[in-house]
Each structure stands twice: as structure tokens, then as C-alpha cells.
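For reference, the entry.
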Amino acid sequence: MVSVLLVNDQSLQRLGLRMLLTAEPDLTVVGEAATSAEAVAMSTALRPDVVLMDVPLADAADIEAVRRIARPARFRPPAESVATGGTPPRVLVLTSAVDEDHAYAALRAGADGFLLTDASPEELTAAVRIVAAGDAVITPTLTRTLIDTVRAEPAARPLRPDVELAALTQRERDVLTAVASGWSNSEIALRLSIAPTTVKSHVSHILGKIGARARVQAVAFAYESGLIRPAA
């Protein structure tokens, strides 16, 4: 059973989302929050599998909330982090507007998925399951936009120390370069003459080594670490 915390400032919309999710036999809503601050507190108390944040992302507080939910250990005293343990919730952002800057900021903060509010009920419930399983959900159009946004940045700014890039094997660097170029797993497998399952394994190892939670965050790392330089 996948537990979900709903975040939306409209009670009627929260009710609609609750009815949609609880109608699924493998999904359950464990709480509702009206603000980002409430979402952070309830996430800590309820420890849901997924936090579904239906927010505009126009406020810096919303981005900070994503960061505190997705990476809570950074904001706790060491002793408390050890005692709390466990895997932090996955964050799925649901929004009505496509703003690449805000979307990119949310993904950098640790969001695992990004879906527009015009998604169908089937797409939303599927996205919740996918994010809960540890994979990322991002619409193809947004993925292309985010890659272009990273490429347009004037200079590389390492997301993490260079030692993390050095920790990647040559094959992992090849796969990361291909991912940052927008190739799908099947395309990477074909071009590198390896099995698709091997590509998926490499991507998983890469995410773990660089501390990323989603594929798009790995794309950002590829550019910001200097593995790939933005086009002139």
C-alpha cells in the first residue's frame, strides 16, 4: 500500500484528489496539508511514501518545502537523523503552469516527479505509483525544456565536489553523457552495444554515486560538473 500526503490550499481540490487516490486499492491518503509549512511538519510526523504537492512553485517557500521533505536529514541535528532513519518521502509536484525555472528549482531541491494538472486521473495515479517505486516522472516536453535550460547556463557550477564525478567508471560516464544528451535507455543500449537492463543498472548506480534522486538531476550534474559543456 502506497501512502500519500496531499498538499493543496483548496479544500475542495484536496477532497477531489483524496477521492481519486483512495478509489485505488493500492493507494491511501494519510493526511492533508493546506500550506507548504504544514506539509513539512506532516511529512515528518506521518512519514508517507509520497507527498503530492499541488502548488504553483512561484514562492521560494514552496521550493524550500520540497527540499525539506525530500532531504530532511540536512535540516536535523545528527543525533536526531540517526534516530529517525528511514527513507524520506518521494515528492511529486502537480502544477497548472509550466515554468522551467521553477520546475528546475523543484527538481534540484529533490522533487522526483513533475506533472501538469491537466493530466488524466490514470496518469496521476500511475505517476504516484512510479514515484513511490523510486523512479522519476517528468513529461517529455518538460524534460526537453529543462535540458535546454541547463545547456543555456553560461558556466558550469559543480552540484557536488569533483570527487563524485571521479567516482564514476568510464562506462558510467559514457551512460551519463548519453542521458544528458537526451537519449532514451533503448537508444543508449543500441549506441553503446549493451543491454537495456544494463543501462538501467548503470543509471541507478550513477544516481546513487552523485546523490541524485531523478534522471533530470543527473542531467544537471553532467553539465554542472563539467562532464558536458553547454553549447555556445
